[in-house]
Design a protein that fits this description.
Layout: H1 2-8, E1 15-18, H2 44-59, E2 67-77, H3 84-88, E3 96-98, E4 108-119, H4 121-134, E5 138-141, H5 148-151, E6 157-159, H6 165-168, E7 175-184, E8 192-195, E9 200-204, E10 209-212, E11 216-217, H7 226-239, E12 248-266, E13 272-278, H8 282-300
Parallel strand pairs: 1-5, 2-8, 6-13
Antiparallel strand pairs: 2-4, 3-4, 7-10, 7-11, 7-12, 8-9, 9-10, 12-13
Length: 301
């Protein structure tokens, strides 16, 4: 939808085909705060991340879009190798502050206070879909089995099929990575929080506090496991004991479409542009990748 959003702004007539739409998609389950997650080996991601960051900042002026700028606290545990030169390169200028030692919890060697967009998927995805419909974009619910079926019917085809590209493109580099999260009743006054070593993240939204998460490569089932959910909650309670007062209201699992590098290119000799393999950084990269797609479309047309 982010790709369609930018293309529609250029006056193209657009039809979106998908097996399912919001709320029945993995993106609805995403914690969806802006952060470069497992893409730091791809230097193209720096521009994509920063472009998306700026788009989300503009959406914060629209209350019904469900996007806000929030403080993200990222901590590094004692006796853990500091990899900061990699991810810090992806941070927009002025978005990061190294925390003072007096602000850190016991066992934490370093902390970062980062201002990031929080995308409340349960609000933003329906909003974006409605904006596209109002601008004339057609949505057709249909499972796609062959991209060539569309290549002969449309001037340009943009393949944003995520894990579907394993079959559509016979791409063995694309794998599922399952993420499991727990859901607690909402609570005001909390920051977003990441501790990669535990591992644990906490994302307070209007509808729930999302407590994650897992990174399970090549797991094909998007179901949760009770023992894993219990472990995630215990990790969160250890850092934030006050969360024990919140009701456990559910859990989710989703499959991230991970690829060692995002595939964003025009397929040689065709009118097909590929845009998939964003892993757990789909929202973080979305509008940045959409800008690159828009440029490729303009080259063709």
């Amino acid at each position: 939808m982010s790709t369609a959003y930018l293309l529609k702004d250029k006056g193209y007539n657009i039809t979106i085909y998908a097996k399912a739409f919001s709320p029945n998609i993995t993106s609805n389950k995403a914690a969806a705060f802006w952060f470069p997650y497992h893409i730091r080996n791809d230097q193209r991601g720096i521009e994509w991340c920063n472009t998306s960051y700026n788009y989300y900042k503009t959406f914060t002026a629209i209350p019904e879009a469900g996007i806000s700028m929030q403080h993200l606290i990222k901590v590094l545990r004692e006796n853990v190798e500091d990899r900061e030169p990699i991810w810090i390169d992806f941070m927009p200028a002025g978005s990061l502050r190294v925390m003072d030692e007096t602000e850190l919890q016991p066992g934490v060697a370093r902390g970062y206070d980062i201002t990031v967009p929080l995308i409340e998927t349960q609000i933003f995805l329906p909003y974006l879909q409605q904006q596209l419909k109002h601008s004339g974009v057609t949505f057709i619910e249909k499972e796609v089995d062959d991209l060539n079926e569309f290549a002969n019917s449309y001037d340009i085809v943009v393949n944003c099929s995520a894990l579907g590209s394993r079959k559509l493109c016979n791409d063995e580099a694309l794998i599922p990575v399952r993420g499991q999260v727990a859901l607690l009743s909402p609570k005001d006054g909390m920051n977003l929080y990441i501790d990669n070593e535990k591992p644990m993240y906490v994302v307070p939204r209007k509808d729930a506090i999302i407590v994650g998460g897992t990174y399970e490569e090549r797991v094909e089932t998007d179901t949760t496991e009770p023992q894993t959910i219990e472990r995630l909650l215990e990790n969160a309670y250890e850092v934030f004991p006050e969360l024990k007062q919140q009701e456990v209201i559910g859990n989710w699992a989703g499959l991230r479409p991970y690829r060692p590098e995002v595939r964003l290119e025009r397929e040689k000799g065709t009118n097909i542009i590929h845009n998939y393999g964003h892993g757990g950084s789909g929202f973080t990269l979305s509008f940045g990748c959409a800008e690159t797609v828009k440029n490729l479309v303009e080259e063709i047309s």
